[in-house]
């Protein structure tokens, strides 16, 4: 069975089957749940896509970035311009938004990735503010008034399919040679460089892929809300995405999924509390981080936990037979 799963043809077929089941299942959900809950599910998927990119940068590679909203805005505006001004297909516009954001990820990566820790965070924050101010003053983006006329082409099956695609990409990447090199950089960058790992190259790769995820998320966001303005991509948006990664557990893909669900749905669930909902929301975050300082899934190897759960009944049954 293990040899069969290692066959790349079988892996591709399983991957395509998973995407097909995701599209079919999400279409069924789309037809059943109310529009309000469907919109929350939309934003859960979009936030998950962006958080997976930041998890690769901050959680896997260990580079603290506060500029993820900049890549999101680049993807959103690039996709909107491609579909509205140039009349390109929606999915092509999403891909263009992701690719342009990825290019900017590489551009910002070269001069800033010599920095580490707080200095890197401040430089990425500065980059995000520069991008926001530029979009505020550009005619093609309609400045501070906002970009109008974007078609609401985003559907729930498309969001969920792209989200599952990104999850599979991140799982594959983390288990690849590149992923292990990124993990080594997170643990000790000096030691990684000493054993021959090109730390700059892998950090730029992480930024490029993370920025691509943010750009795709931004493009989906633009075609969901049908209206975007520079204030949608301020510092608070970067903090929101970072909170998802930290709450779920740095470097944990299952944790990122849980964090996206919890932090996206919580403000809506607490909406009946009116003016007190954000206070309760903040208190919940504080309590969770007190009892789970490494995040909800931080330090938990889900694969080993599942294997242990599957093996335990067999051992217990064998013990009874003896």
TrEMBL record:
GO terms for cellular component: plasma membrane. It comes from the Bacteria. The chain crosses the membrane at residues 35-57, 64-84, 90-110, 155-173, 206-229, 241-266, 278-295. The keyword Transmembrane helix applies. It is found in: Cell membrane. The keyword Protein transport does not apply. Its main location: membrane. Pfam families: BPD_transp_2. Keywords: Cell membrane, Membrane, Transmembrane, Transmembrane helix. InterPro entries: ABC_transp_permease (IPR001851), LivM-like (IPR043428). GO terms for molecular function: branched-chain amino acid transmembrane transporter activity. This is Branched-chain amino acid transport system permease protein. The lineage of its organism: Bacteria, Bacillati, Bacillota, Clostridia, Eubacteriales.
